[in-house]
Amino acid sequence: MITVNEEKIWNFIYEKSHNAYGTAALMGNLMAESSLNPKNVTGSKDPDYVQKADSGTIDFVHDGHAFGLVQWCFKTRKEGLLSYAKSLKTSVGDINAQLNYMWQELQNSYKTAYNAIINSTNIRKSSDVIMLKYEKPSNTSETMKQRRANYGQKFYDMFASSVSKENVEKKESKETSKKVIITMDRVNLRA
Predict the structure, then answer these.
(1) C-alpha span between 182 and 187 (Å, rounded)
(2) For the chain, what is the largest distance between any 2 Cα atoms, rounded to a whole number of angstroms?
(3) 66-67 vs 41-42, strand pairing mode
């Protein structure tokens, strides 16, 4: 069964990347980091953490807790996320704000990971690049690489068939719209 967050995240990344392998690889990493929960906090059991971060009653930027889909922890990255959410007048725990901020980060500051997503031809290879160049977890073992790639394969299996069907339908639609009917005996064709 596909969850709302799984579908939302897949659709967002695929719409940006136009690459099912890269989308799956990034989702596998997000699954390993946060279980696709934009309000996931590592290191705090405070049920009001997000509300306190939004209101400024905690030092969200410097508290050392990993947070969100990506598990942002480094202070400049958390500060960027917080500023971005505030600019949208939304919560730092908002999934749409996090997805857009993540994509901006990838495009502007993590080009190697970004290119691995948009040019992917292999989930495992792209997943490893995303893990090592974007997520940068403390555990970079072979077991962790395989786990993230396995999550990515699961998402690919769940969603890629609908992407393929959509691409086939678009292609068929374009081909049909290019048909020309000739009603004369003689026609000069040019490019």
Answers:
(1) 8
(2) 80
(3) antiparallel
